[in-house]
């Protein structure tokens, strides 16, 4: 492709409003143009790379028996009402009306669509298992679209759905998909981990997220060096200490704590460590409220709370709710003398003689002991693990890394087949709900994640598997007719073997080199001063290794080295 005919509007300046490296590089390299918040036009370079990623995804889906389809973007409201998600999905669901005032959603995901398709077509278990997939634009009205294609409001996803008549079959496809995803992310050269993730309030299901490791990642991956244990911090289980008998003889006592609103200040005031304090969280769970006590230095994990109480409808009680419940303010809350059910994090279980708020501004109790001074409904894991604690599989202390979720595999079970009546007749002629799995790859997000980990201070360095072109031919001096002739010949001969971008523009050499570094093709061939002696420069983008070769040797050199 001649660059004069391409559309690659590179930028010299560094865009100020782009918060992530990949976003900056994509803007500078002329790959995307923002049309509205989180909504982009994919320019030619981006489109070529997306095509390559999609091709890899297709191959891996086909290899595990996936069959490609294409479903509508417009989803009738009725289907989403059947699943209960018209309301439950909230404001992230984009909604529109047609000329007859009928409501539609712009599909953020396609469980409803595909379940409706299959329930009309599928009658017998004999047609199972079945795996269908599509690569398509999805719409989510994200609260904070950002980082370019990493979190868009309109983005490309590969979504696959599998259907089964028994658990063993679902397990098998899940494993196949897990492996296919591993292949996909290895092939596009992402440094990734498959991590155990939370399956939401429904529980019981099984899910892994594929995380590309990158500092900009919004997820925290918990892992150890001692094994292949890795989990999303939302899910990573905290160690549970052996319960020990606590038997305190100290009297509970109310003390003045003027102006004390945090555990750190409380610890200072009482001359103890933060680890020796507790914090009391009031949670709204549906229409009820509960108290959860944690050690002062720990953080509540609302995902674990949701999964414990088996509902998504969980939130921190507001200041007003707390005032109504306890006639107290945050900072002075505690479990003594309250009607609320009290739950303890495992880590509080072995504490004794600790301070808690007195539900009265400026006062705390000290020497508090659970079971003695207040009742406990249950002990569980309600917090985030911290770095250095023992991993769930005892393989050593956990470490943290940041990750970008590029894919997820999920056993849905019968969630949609039950709510939407997708049944088949089993071997005994009984009607049973179909088991389902769903599997997503963020195709456009994957592109950004690749750039996050393949770049240097001059631009992008494309992995060969996804690069938009293989070779960049550049004429350093477009006025040098002899050089241009050599370039044209190389463009023709190399073009038979490789995908070549030929910079034939009437630009200064400096501009061309800077653009070439930005665009980041694996090899570049420069026709410069050496052309008179029949020499050109061949340079590898990643290793920066460069060679002066005679024109006749270029093809052979590339064949050996590319
Ligand atoms: P996130 O937690 O990042 O919002 P998600 O868990 O809601 O993502 P899924 O429903 O699992 O996303 O969608 C499958 C894949 O689609 C994700 O793994 C991710 O790679 C991609 N994806 C999701 N939301 C976006 C988005 N707003 N922009 C780009 N890609 C996205
Ligand atoms: Mg996900």
Automatic annotation (TrEMBL):
- Entry GO MF terms: aminoacyl-tRNA deacylase activity; ATP binding; catalytic activity, acting on a protein; proline-tRNA ligase activity; transferase activity
Task: Write the record's keywords in alphabetical order, separated by commas.
Answer: Aminoacyl-tRNA synthetase, ATP-binding, Cytoplasm, Ligase, Nucleotide-binding, Protein biosynthesis
User: Where the protein is mainly located, per its record?
Assistant: cytoplasm
Q: Where is the protein found, in the record's own terms?
A: Cytoplasm
Root EC class: ligase
Q: Which Gene Ontology cellular component annotation is one that this UniProt entry carries?
A: cytosol
Residue intervals of the Aminoacyl-transfer RNA synthetases class-II family profile domain = 49-463
Q: Which SUPFAM superfamilies match?
A: Class II aaRS ABD-related (SSF52954), Class II aaRS and biotin synthetases (SSF55681), YbaK/ProRS associated domain (SSF55826)
The reactions it catalyses are:
tRNA(Pro) + L-proline + ATP = L-prolyl-tRNA(Pro) + AMP + diphosphate
- Does the keyword section mention Nucleotide-binding? yes
A GO BP entry is: prolyl-tRNA aminoacylation
Q: Where are the transmembrane segments?
A: none
Task: Please indicate if the UniProt record lists Transferase as a keyword.
Answer: no
Q: Which E.C. number(s) belong to this protein? A: 6.1.1.15
Q: Supply the Pfam families for this chain.
A: HGTP_anticodon, tRNA-synt_2b, tRNA_edit
Binding partners and assembly:
Homodimer.
What is written about domains in the entry's comments? Consists of three domains: the N-terminal catalytic domain, the editing domain and the C-terminal anticodon-binding domain.
In UniProt terms, what function does this protein have? Catalyzes the attachment of proline to tRNA(Pro) in a two-step reaction: proline is first activated by ATP to form Pro-AMP and then transferred to the acceptor end of tRNA(Pro). As ProRS can inadvertently accommodate and process non-cognate amino acids such as alanine and cysteine, to avoid such errors it has two additional distinct editing activities against alanine. One activity is designated as 'pretransfer' editing and involves the tRNA(Pro)-independent hydrolysis of activated Ala-AMP.
Q: Which family does it belong to?
A: Belongs to the class-II aminoacyl-tRNA synthetase family. ProS type 1 subfamily.
Which named protein is this?
Proline--tRNA ligase
């Amino acid at each position: 492709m001649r660059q004069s005919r391409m559309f690659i509007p590179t930028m010299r300046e560094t865009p100020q409003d782009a918060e992530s490296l990949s976003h900056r590089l994509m803007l500078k390299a002329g790959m995307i143009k923002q049309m509205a918040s989180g909504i982009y036009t994919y320019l030619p370079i981006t489109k070529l790379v997306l095509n390559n990623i999609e091709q890899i995804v297709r191959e891996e889906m086909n290899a595990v028996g996936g069959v490609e389809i294409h479903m509508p973007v417009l989803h009738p409201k009725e289907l989403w009402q059947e699943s209960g998600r018209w309301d439950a999905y909230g404001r992230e669901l984009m909604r529109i009306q047609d000329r007859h005032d009928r409501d539609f959603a712009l599909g953020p995901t396609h469980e409803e669509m595909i379940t409706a398709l299959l329930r009309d077509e599928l009658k017998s278990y004999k047609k199972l298992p079945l795996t269908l997939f599509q690569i398509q634009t999805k719409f989510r009205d994200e609260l904070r679209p950002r980082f370019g294609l990493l979190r868009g409001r309109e983005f490309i996803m590969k979504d696959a759905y599998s259907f089964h008549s028994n658990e063993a079959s679902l397990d098998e496809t899940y494993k196949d998909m897990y492996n296919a995803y591993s292949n996909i992310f290895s092939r596009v050269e992402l440094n990734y981990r498959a991590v155990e993730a939370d399956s939401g309030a429904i529980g019981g299901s099984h899910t892994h997220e594929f995380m590309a490791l990158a500092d900009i990642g919004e997820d925290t991956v918990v892992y150890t060096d001692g094994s292949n244990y890795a989990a999303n911090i939302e899910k990573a289980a905290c160690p549970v200490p052996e319960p020990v008998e606590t038997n305190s003889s100290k009297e509970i006592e109310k003390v003045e704590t003027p102006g004390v609103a945090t555990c750190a200040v409380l610890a200072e005031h009482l001359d103890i460590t933060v680890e020796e304090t507790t914090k009391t969280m009031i949670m709204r769970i549906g229409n009820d409220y509960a108290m959860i006590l944690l050690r002062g230095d720990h953080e509540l994990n609302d995902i674990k709370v949701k999964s414990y109480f088996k509902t998504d409808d969980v939130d921190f009680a507001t200041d007003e709710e707390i005032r109504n419940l306890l006639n107290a303010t945050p900072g002075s809350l505690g479990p003594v003398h309250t009607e609320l059910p009290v739950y303890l994090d495992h880590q509080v279980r072995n504490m004794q003689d600790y301070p808690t708020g007195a539900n009265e501004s400026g006062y705390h109790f000290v020497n508090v002991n659970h079971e003695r001074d207040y009742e406990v409904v249950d002990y569980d894991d309600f917090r985030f693990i911290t770095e250095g604690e023992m991993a769930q599989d005892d393989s050593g202390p956990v470490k943290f890394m940041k990750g970008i979720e590029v894919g997820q595999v999920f056993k849905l079970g019968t969630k949609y087949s039950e709510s939407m009546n997708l049944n088949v007749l089993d071997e005994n002629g009984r009607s049973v709900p179909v088991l389902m799995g769903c599997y997503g790859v963020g195709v456009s997000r994957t592109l950004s994640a690749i750039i996050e980990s393949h770049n240097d201070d001059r631009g992008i360095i494309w992995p060969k598997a996804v690069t938009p072109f293989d070779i960049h031919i550049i004429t350093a001096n477009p006025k040098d007719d002899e050089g241009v002739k050599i370039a044209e010949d190389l463009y023709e001969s190399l073009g038979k073997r490789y995908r070549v971008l030929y910079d034939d523009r009437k630009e200064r050499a400096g501009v061309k080199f800077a653009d070439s570094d930005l665009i980041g093709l694996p090899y570049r061939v420069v026709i410069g001063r050496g052309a008179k002696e029949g020499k050109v420069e061949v340079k590898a983008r990643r290793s920066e290794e460069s060679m002066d070769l005679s024109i006749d040797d270029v093809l052979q050199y590339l064949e050996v080295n590319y």
